[in-house]
Amino acid sequence: MGRARRREAAARRARAGAGMSERAQPFHCPYCGDENLFPREGAGAWECRSCLRSFTVQMTGMIPHPGGAE
Ligand SMILES: [Zn+2]
Question: Distance from the CA of 42 to the center of ligand 1, in angstroms?
Fold first, then answer.
């Protein structure tokens, strides 16, 4: 019963992931380097509880492969 609903939710997540709104997860704070990061719900941001900064991670585009070959 609940299985179909879960599949729907997964499909919805996959569709959302294809858009620009996908949130990248940082593993270290870009300011102090600590791993004490928590998602800041509603703001689409992350907060570092070590240096008390809040920030977002945004992908700005794709780059050419550094190897040169396609
Ligand atoms: Zn920090």
Answer: 20
